[in-house]
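Hi V.,

You were right to ask for the full record rather than a summary. Here it is.
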Amino acid sequence: MSKLQSDIHAWLQANRDAGTALLQQLVNMPTLQGNERNAQLFMADKMRNIGLEVDMWELDGEDGEDGKRLKMHPYFYSPRDDFKGSPNVVGVCRGTGGGRSIILNGHVDVVPEGNRELWDDDPFGGVIKDGKLFGRGATDMKGGSVSLLLAVQALQELGVKLQGDVIVQSVVEEESGGAGTLAAILRSYKADAALIPEPTNMKIFPKQQGSMWFRLHIKGRSAHGGTRYEGVSAIELAMPVITHLQTLEQVRNARITDPLYASNPIPIPINIGTITGGNWPSSVPDTVQLEGRMGVAPDESLEQAKQEMADWLARLAEQHVWFRDNPPILEWFGARWVPGSVDADHELLSILAQQYRNVRHEEPVIEASPWGTDGGLLTVLAETPCIVFGPGETKVAHYPNEYMELERMFEAAEIIALTLVQWCGVEGFTNECK
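Predicted structure:
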């Protein structure tokens, strides 16, 4: 263990109570969509206290121009028209020059807590038991964001002066499609690389699938239930449509040969999430609506996936005469996440993996992400190659009794701090970040 690693480790051990309290304070704030302001003010204050230059703004901007540019962007999606109460926060530590820059991106928004009766404690209580801190957002992804802050603060207080800029982002709207990170990109925040500490179980994800929501309208012909043979049931038609989509899923996944997906049984799923249809028990239903999610491979575009879905659905007419004159209507709606991929020989991946070994004394698991993140936007749109690595537990994200294993949060902070040193470069030692 190098002296610097020893110093970082000792600093994190000495600040365990403060780091735990920081996570607890964030979990105490129910940062549901539209209610992020207090937590973002808190994050801004924390960033200032550790010496970062802070930029905070609401996504639609004071004069509306940022909002116009954001909402017209092809990668924009949000169920909201107004972002008041939901500011982005970015803190920048300026390097001395000559080093590589990095974005550390975390989202502050959380999904709703759901049925509170399924929680053992208050979903926003931040209760600590058996080395775990419980609460909505603890694993997805406030624990990861605390790891980022602790990593930067450790280097600051140890007097490590980085050569490259470190850009710490606390964004909104990740859970609904990434408008917060998109707004930061449009505000010209880019870097040589990026890291997002989503809940990966301490695995390293250099690739991540994208996803899109789709809606299918299936048309039948109504009739009285007593003479149902005179009608065409849209519900019965939905069955071959679903089977057809399942075959498309098999075809698309058969093309995935990337070893990073070896442990994933369905790398890019097509999931039917809702089905609605019919309006009377004694009538043949004439319409059915299916809604679902289509996974997109890291090396394909959203547009390519859309076209394949459309072409595949057009083939339904070969299987069922009804669809020749009544093809299902395909609609793309709602949230979407851009896929992203970082080359296996990218230096950030090598550095991160080595620092993982240095801290945990074992080989890291390197896989492809089974879900989308804001990393796709950073990689594709901002030309900022992004790797996803974080301390949270995937299996408890969005679940009742969500928790963060505190030891992992501090391990991740140590790994990230050492990664910053190697990636950005170190000129010398100072107590300031200016």
